[in-house]
Write a structure and sequence with these properties.
32% strand; globular
Length: 160
Amino acid sequence: MQTYTLDKDLSLSDVEVCPLFLGLFTQGVDMEITWVQCTSYDEAKDYSRIIYLHEWNREPFYWGKAHNSFFGGHKRKRDELEASGRYNSGYRHWIEGCLQHGAKLYIGQLNEAALANIDEIENYLIHTYGHKMNTKVYEPRRKLSVSHVGDVPSSINDKP
């Protein structure tokens, strides 16, 4: 077997690898979600590569992800991402209306290990904490080590 030496330390974002490899590479690595509670559409729209939660009455209503998109707005380029919004501007009135009538919106920023496993993280959150409206839920393939920091949603904090 040959050994190769790299001239610099690589992060997961430096190389393109298949998702299966990333899953193996990140096993045992702590995944972290930093939660931010957004009180308006404008506050949330520029987040990208995130998990989000619409919460109602301290319960998860809908989990989603904006992996290679922004949470909101129209197509634009920011940093190295050129993408549309998951909820384009036509959804502004629905999101604002929900927020003004008791719903909460949380944006989960993922560390590198969590981002490499975003589909699995989304399913883990749906499966672990419940939901009202998600339609695609499957038994997690493995136990994940996920820590939550920041404005952690009540539906996560309230669950033992």
